[in-house]
Amino acid sequence: MAERPPPRPRPLSLSAVAVLGAIANEIRHGFDIMDATGLPSGTVYPVLGRLERDGYVRARWESPATAQEEKRPPRRYYWVTASGARALASSIEHYRTLGGRFSLGASPEPVPE
Amino acid sequence: MRLVRTASLLVPWSRRQEWLLEWEGELAHRISRLERTGRLDAPAAAAIFTRTLGAFPHALWVLHDETSVETMIHDIRYAIRTHLRRPAFATLVVATLGLGIGANTAMFSIVNSVLIEPLPYERPEELVYLFGAFQGGNTASISPADFVDYRARQTVFSSLAAGTVWGSAVLSGSGEPERVTAAIASANFFATLGVEPLLGRAFLPDEERGYQHDVVILSHGLWQRRFASRPDIVGTTMRIDERPHTVVGVLPPMPDTTFDAQVWRPVAFGAEGWTIRRFHTLRAVGRLAPGVTLTRAQRQLDVIAKQLERVYPENESWKLRLVPYRDIVVGDVGRTLVVLLGAVGLVLLIACGNVASLLLARATARTGEMAVRTSLGASRWRLVRQLLTEGFTLGLTAGAAGLAVAYCLVRGVRAIGAGIVPRLAELGIDQTALVFTFVLSLVTSLVFGLAPALRAARGEVAAALKSLGRVSAGGQRTRQALVISQVAASFVLLIVSGLLIRSFWQLQRVAPGFDPSGVFTAEIVLPPTRFETRAAIDRFWATFTERVRGIPGVESVAATTMLPLRGGGDTYFYVDGRPPASDAEKMNALVSVVTDDYFKTMRMAVKGGRTFTRADRADGPGVMVINEGLARRLFPGGNAVGKRLIVDFGTPFAGEIVGVVNDVRTSGQANPAPDTMYFSLRQPAAGWVFSTRLVARVSGDETAIAPHVRAVLRQLDPDLPLASVESMDEILAGSVRDVRFRARLLSAFAAAALLLAVMGLYAILAHSVTQRTRELGVRMALGARSAEVFRLVTGEGMLLVAAGVALGLALSFAATRLVRGLLFEVSQTDLQVFAVVTVTLLGSGLAACLLPARRATRVPAMDALRSE
Description:
heterodimer, A: mainly alpha, Arc Repressor Mutant, subunit A, two-stranded antiparallel ribbon, 51% helix, elongated, B: alpha+beta, 4 domains, six-stranded mixed beta barrel, 26 helices, 21 strands, 16% strand
């Protein structure tokens, strides 16, 4: 009997990988993520919402004290959970093999992270 | 900023605040940073503006996410897993709610099919029923002559028809002779009701003019049973009351049982005897012309009544009264059903209360879980939504269980309610009821899902985290209020059913005025074609009763035209020499024509004078016997025997009162004994004889003689069937049947209510003891004796029960007013019932307290302290 491969979670979308990757690199606020990924706000926020719903990221409000100091409302910041980190790693792996399989010969460069 | 606020309107309310804060936070941060570094130039502002536009897709995404099937499925799966982790809890909730919903659906199905759904006729709201009545008097039928006049003069009905179930007829010719119920109808009768014959045709206008047309229409049931649904039945001939009749049509099943007959013949307007205006025999049904209201129709009928009054003196004060046809079909059962619906509603409320109490208790226990989840970042809305989903899944499962319960209940009610509740044959769980259950289960689940959800939403996170596992006073109070209202509701139910049960007992204790045990009865209809004269009828009965007396075990035999508890016909009379000066003085009484041994056979008491003997000959002076109540009313203080009454049998009959007998409850156990006049079968001018009942007093089993009586009859006249074989005990039981039906159903509901309330009380006390383990343990450790702890817990419970009883007492005075009309010789504030119910509830409450209280006394101090 052939051994079945362990069930692999569905890979995240490319924009989710980008957003999750940004948060993993300690870019924690909505607008900063947009700056880092170059994705528009209409994409980043829904992706954040989905990631949060699926438990890959968690959100918190920054302490009111900090906000008060700068005389502005508090910001919401995100961080990656353990399952988020796993999903990110396996998705990157997935896209990497995919990139390898479809390398068009002309440019066998590795897919940038 | 304004853009973001506009976009936020798209975001569901539950998430809007958070959503807005995040956007505002980011924007404010970005702008203040640019300002600080002095880089807030036009391109930067444009970039921010573009980015702000993204708020719209974001808002739309949230909206979509919030309502997405995926999220819902996720919630539902989580809810089901939660329920499966606590199967006992889920089962308890589903069972409690299922019972409540099931009972409600069943009752709703009944009420719906009997009361709410329109009659299964075409445009049923147009159908009206016409009663004949003296000014302000009781209701009666209409004479054929009057009917013809009304029909000719009226303009408010598109069609006015008459018909009546006219005793019975003997069907013979093919197979065994059989007694069938017979009715007569005007030609337009079926068309007025909107009933089309299944085969053949209805009667023709020409056929209502006299007896020359021997045509018959068969009921659906008779056609199926006796004629095996022969398709070629129309045109065949059969003998009815010994005369050949041609079958012209077969009816479909009739929509209701108001006119329930097996053979229909045309009314013979204009035939001899049918012109007497006092001969009120027909029941009229009209279909209002389009746009005509009941009041307008009534006004015209009143005008016609005045016109007729001028022409026919005997019509003085005689009027027709209109009643919607639906009221006739539904009748008095309506109120019973409303009371039952109320009872069932109360049971459901109690069930909901129980479930809410269970869920509240659990919410308290889960406060910790909620607090942890909140602090881990779950939004409040998510928690509320999760709890609501849990409620919904429970409610829906309970709804399904309820539907199953309802199905069984409806079958049961159909079995025991047959003949009591009208239109029961149509009863099923219909679509309306299905929708009703669905809505009910959703509302119920929302109601009980909401309380814990709201508590969670209030999200007193810090407080909750601090008090992990401890009691919240608020929840406790809500649950106490629930228990109090449950006890109050079951108190009301118990009172109402207690009153009905007492009514039932009272009814059974009423002395009917005769001795019903060991009396055999059967009906024999002598066809007028062969028994034309009273002498012939008398001869038949003399021979027949003589032969029946010969059957072993028979002690005494007689015949009567009116059996007690079965009602009968009445007529007008006056005391000789005191004719009525006006209608107001007109008196009437029931008429019973009997053979000599009737009073002896029924074991009635002779209160004065004598009963009939052979000396009262056919050609001798007219004699009669009256009941005690009538004698007292006519001759207060004096002796009725020897006085003469003039009785209206079409022609006046002068009868001397030769005896006075005791009162008999002739028109049902619940009604007072009506005035009755008895006449001798031998005297031809006294009363009408259509169908006659044999009554035989038997030593031993009265039903066992039926075959012997049948054999005797066959010997005497093979063409006469013996019908309606019943014992007097059965008839007596039948007369209290609907009271028993009500009492039984309500008792079942009251028992369910009591059980649920006791369960609720037990649950809250048990929970409270668990929650107070620490406190109780400390008390014990500090030297409190078990007896004191026991008293403490019991006292807490009994305080709730007492409050519930007090509330129930107050509510009962209002509730019992609703059932006053259903009570019989029981005051609506019957002390005994109130006392018994109070004691029962206090006793059951105490029983519910005992177990938790005992457990409380067993709390080891160490355990209690450790549970901290």
